[in-house]
TrEMBL record:
It comes from Salipiger thiooxidans. It holds the Pfam family NAD_binding_10. This is NAD(P)H dehydrogenase (Quinone). Residues 11-189 form the NAD(P)-binding domain. The lineage of its organism: Bacteria, Pseudomonadati, Pseudomonadota, Alphaproteobacteria, Rhodobacterales. Coiled coil: none annotated.
């Protein structure tokens, strides 16, 4: 029989999950923290931090049932496998219910139900509904865009002297992964909210891609322009750069949604949860150079 764990983070070797583990370790003893990974070889760095590591894939209900035994509070980090997420998340929810998990926090997407984005939100909405029907106590962390989604392309933008996109003049209220991880840890370790609570999470300040290109020019000392494209042309350009068609389509759809306000919020819930301003996007950009 697995031991009792107050906290468990799924996807703990991924970018957001690993940060969430670190945020928990800053708040509670390592003996209270569990990390769920899908491959045994991902365990060592987490075990070195003193956390309990359990191995289970989102596709393996039996392994999930065993891995979640004795867990009190679970952070369900959404799967990276777009198109498979709803079924994978349902497996985790079923296992959490079978194991008697006391509370689940799930990382969804900003404005999920009414979002103008058409590719990403559907599986998040399905997961939110599965949680609502599960009988589990839960909260939804509707994360906005990561600033890193744009800073990861800085080297390419500097090489070509320009950025392309399809977000028009849509404002993007992004925050860092670390900001969202801090919010997850705050919800998980604090006084639990009423079941079904939804947190709409976004950065305190926002930018257009024109703003982003101008800031990149200023900080790098190199001129970088922004060219806005129709979504279908942007998707074709991404495919031409080597991205698989489904990924290109998802990114183009996300930018089309951003042009309609889908990645913007000004309610400051994220900064209130973490007890500090969110990381300014210019600061994240500067650090990426």
């Amino acid at each position: 029989m697995a031991g009792t764990l107050k906290y468990m983070v799924t996807g703990a070797s991924g970018q957001l999950g690993a940060l969430a583990v670190d945020e928990l370790l800053a708040k509670v003893p390592a003996a209270e923290v569990g990390a769920l990974v899908r491959r045994a070889e991902a365990a060592a760095p987490l075990e070195a931090k003193g956390v309990t590591v359990r191995v289970a894939s989102y596709d393996d209900p039996a392994a999930l049932n065993a891995a979640l035994e004795g867990v009190e509070r679970l952070l369900l980090v959404s799967s990276s496998e777009v198109g498979k997420r709803a079924a994978q998340h349902a497996n985790v929810i079923d296992a959490a219910r079978a194991a008697g998990v006391g509370f689940v926090a799930y990382t969804s997407i900003l404005g999920a139900e009414g979002s103008p984005l058409t590719v990403l939100p559907g599986e998040h909405v399905a997961t939110e509904r599965a949680l609502a029907a599960s009988g589990l106590a839960y909260a939804v962390l509707r994360n906005g865009w990561y600033t890193e989604n744009y800073t990861m392309g800085v080297a390419t933008s500097l090489e070509h002297g320009g950025m392309i996109g399809a977000a028009g003049e849509g404002r993007i209220a992004s925050a860092t992964r670390a900001d969202y991880a801090a919010a997850a840890a705050a919800v998980l370790t604090g006084e639990l909210p009423p079941s079904g609570t939804i947190y709409e999470l976004a950065g305190d300040d926002a930018f257009t891609l024109t703003d982003f290109a101008a800031a990149l020019s200023e900080l790098s000392g190199k001129t970088v322009g922004y060219t806005n494209l129709p979504p279908e042309d942007y998707a074709a350009a991404l495919e031409g750069a080597g991205l698989p068609e489904p990924v290109a389509a998802m990114l183009a759809d996300s930018e089309k949604g951003a042009a309609q306000g889908g990645l913007y919020s000004d309610d400051k819930t994220l900064s209130r949860l973490i007890g500090r301003p969110t990381t300014p996007w210019r600061e994240t950009l500067k650090a990426a150079l």
